[in-house]
Amino acid sequence: MFEFHLAATHGAARSGTLTTPHGEVPTPAFMPVGTAGTVKGLIMEEVEALSARMVLANTYHLYLRPGHGLVRQLGGIHAFMRWNRPLLTDSGGFQVFSLAGTRTIHEQGVEFRSHLDGSKHEFTPESVMDIQRTLGADVIMAFDECPPGGCDRGTAEAANRRTLDWLSRCRARFEEIGGERDVPEQALFPVLQGNVYDDLRLEHARQFRDLGDWPGYGIGGLSVGEAKEDMWRVLELLNDELPASVPRYLMGVGYPDDLLEAVARGCDMFDCVAPTRNARHGTAWTSHEGQINLKAARFRDDSSPVDPGCDCYTCSHYDRAYLRHLVVSNELLSLRLLSIHNLRFLVRLGEEARRRVGEGTFDTWQRDWLERYRNERSQA
After folding, report:
1. For residue 377, what pLDDT is reported?
2. Does residue 378 carry a pLDDT above 60?
3. Residues 6+ away with beta carbon under 8 Å from 13
4. The pTM is what?
């Protein structure tokens, strides 16, 4: 049920297709984030209209509310969300480790307090597999320890050791549950850590390969405050180390320029909350003006679309002047319309990158696109 077909390469950039029980995902692909079973402000028919092929949901949030058992009782995560395309759940590890003041890490797992009511909980590799198996996403992520950006080498080494141990336990539980009845077909991706230490990153990748074959790899810990140059260097290292026959999922990265930089270094799948978060602050992405904030007075009488080259519903039906009015008036419609645009912008960027890889023009196109985008953004 799971297969990755690599269609073309141009330098390190790749185009391919990930096949899952709920359909195909052409790559490079941006995945909208549906943290609590919803992409903020949108109905799933609108997400589908963006041509998004895969959506991410969050294990930590769904575990706390409404509970993974209830989700299964109501038909599983696809039915619960009204999304019948491919779906990925992260392990909840990043959310748990971000609760620095209310969690305790030990070899068995992590004890933490809910951000909702302060109640005590524990995640272990086994329980995280149980939760994600119960939710029923197509792709599920192993439980890992994500150390903070800028951590010292000792902290990164300890996180690597724990993540490797937890991965073995995740796979054992994953395979054990797979023998039970009424369990959907799922693929388990490990999550590489190592912070910005080159040797730790390479060591982790080799240790993961030594454990056996994987249907894909998650690359974690590169969107937690490190310098961009460190991110690009690590991705270049991993491009030569990871199997070319499976997809690479760069976790938590999704600003337009970051996405293209990562595609150029061999990454295939991406997620980020930035499109909808930026929309809530009146910020939109454009091809020829970089990032713009519609609160600016210069948009007060601007009758042009957000991005004349965009084919989204927002750009086809509304102008900047009206959107600015909605933003400064704190109207909820601004969140919806700008979310539609920002999400479509990233999905379309992945589509264009895929086309350019196939044509053998990716390098030149990407370089020109980034130069224009960054130059315009710096002048905004």
Report:
1. 63
2. no
3. 28, 263, 264, 266, 353, 357, 362, 363, 366
4. 0.97
CB 193 within 8 A of CB 146: yes
Helix (H/G/I), strand (E/B), else coil: 333 = helix
Q: How confident is the model at residue 1 (pLDDT cuts 50, 70, 90)?
A: confident
Q: Which positions are annotated as active-site residues?
A: 90, 271
Give residue 380's pLDDT.
Answer: 55
Residue 249, CA distances (Å) to 6, 253, 260 in order:
15, 10, 14
Domains for the chain: give ranges and CATH numbers: 3-272 (3.20.20.105), 279-379 (no CATH)
pLDDT digits (tens, 9 = 90+) for 143-157: 999 998 889 999 999
Spatial separation of the C-alpha atoms in residues 12 and 198, rounded to whole Å: 19
Tokens for 351? 């589509």
Number of residues in the chain: 380
**In three state form, how does the secondary structure of 157-177 look?**
HHHHHHHHHHHHHHHHHHHHH
State the amino acid at position 216 in one-letter form.
G
Closest CA relative to residue 107, chosen from 184, 42, 174, 169: 169
